[in-house]
Structure formats: structure tokens, C-alpha cells
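Field reference: sequence -> structure
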Amino acid sequence: ITCLGSTVASAADGIMIRVTANPGQIKGGTEVLATVPKGTRLWAFEVKDEWAKVKVPNKERKGWIHVTQAEVIEQSEAQNVRVKEAFGLTERIEKLLAEQKTAEAVEVIHQSLVIVREVFGEVHPTVAEMLEVLGTHQLALGQFQEAQKQCRSALAIQREVLGEKHPETLSLRSNRAVGLGDLGDNAAARTLHEQTLALQREVLGEKHPDTLISMNNLALVLYRLGEYSAARTLNEQTLALQREVLGEKHPDTLISMSNLASVLGKLGDNAAARTLNEQTLALQREELGEKQG
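Structure field:
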């Protein structure tokens, strides 16, 4: 039975700005939602008609600050040089990973993380992205505690900068839940998966690929906990949606078919499990043949 992984979050669209007014005002229409001290760093999700959309600090609410009360945080020439250096390291990381030299790649990711922290500061989506990349490959090396540490840090940054319900924050929550399961803490993994799935259904919708990944991964945790009937129900729901959204031959759909077969086996329905495994194998062979052809 197999877990599905969310894609590593990429740095959010937007720009980091600094409040120049003392204090700055974040508004929702004519209402002042918050006043923020001069020097506060805010992530601007968009700029429209001289207003920048930002998250109210420490709240799950967004508002608008006038561009006369803030400035874009520009990078110096020296910082631009460092950013180019980090991009160069990214190419090296990709080459090492392609050569399956994960341990060496992790060392280079550490170097890149030092640079992005130096340029962007500790609380920035790019730093969260690099922490997530680091954690993902530490997980591949079996460094579960270190991987969870990176994921916790990345998630804290995304929550502060982007908000709890931002798609990239939800992706990080999902990945952290997977990590908890890999550590054997299936009870905590279940709780986090359930919370994340509820938010994804609200924000992204039932049929979004990330929602479907979380459904599959929650079903896996239920399986590990021995709750086979609940796992079967969720696997069946996931599979039906994946067939509709992704298609019968999509890799995620095939994984869910295999997972459901495993659950059916645990429930003693060996005939149904065998039939589903045979269907999965036939589709995998067909898909492989089409790609080779």
C-alpha cells in the first residue's frame, strides 16, 4: 500500500513589501482591519489600483494597504549576485539527484538554504520552499527527525506569511502529515491529514488533485491503524474521483487501485482484491506499452 506525495511547494506568487508609514493601515473597504508598525514586512499577493493585498499579521484575514504606505523590498547588487549563486547550486542539486547522489545533494541544499536566508531573511516563502526541498530529500535518506524539523519550520513560515488556507501552506501540512506517518506516529498523522483534508475541500474543492492526494494518504493511515472498513470507504471515494478527474491510467489512480486491493485483502475479500490487482496490472502494462510505443 502506497502513500502519495504532494508536489514540493514553489515560492508563492507575490512580492515582499515593507511598511513605511508609522503606522500603516490594512483596510477592508473603509474598515481599518489592523494598524502595523513601520518596518513591518508583509507579503503582497497582488497590487491593484494602488492597493496591495496583504495578510493581516497573526490573523487569518486579508486586507489592502495603500502603496504610499509601503515599499517593495529591493535586492542590492550584492544580493542579486548571491541569488544567482543559489540558482547555480540548484542546477548542481538537480544533477546530483538525477545521478541518485541524494546525500551529496542534501549537502548542497544546505548551502543554498544559507544563501536564501541571507538574501530574503528567515520569514519568506523562498526560504520555506528550500526548507521543504531539504526535508523531502532528508526523508528519502531516512533522516525522519531532521525532515520533520524542516517541515515544521517551513510550515510556520507559510502560516505566518501566506496564511493557514493558502494552497502552498496546505501542501506543506499534507507533507508533514506524511512525515509523521513515516515516523510511525499514525495517530498524529491522522489528525493532521483530517484537518488538512477539511481545509482543502473548503479551499480547493473535492476534485482538486491535492485534495485527492490527501484522501489517499488519510486512507493509508487508517489502514495502518487497522481501521480497514473506514480505509475502504475512503479509498473507494478517492478512486471514483481520480477516475473522473485524472483518468483510469493516471499513476495516482493506479496507486489507489492497488491500495484498495490491499484493503480488500485485509477485510477478507480476496476475490475482489485479486480482481482489482489484475485490473491494475493490466492497465499498468497497457500504459507502459503505450509509452514505449
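Note: The two ends are 29 Å apart (CA to CA).
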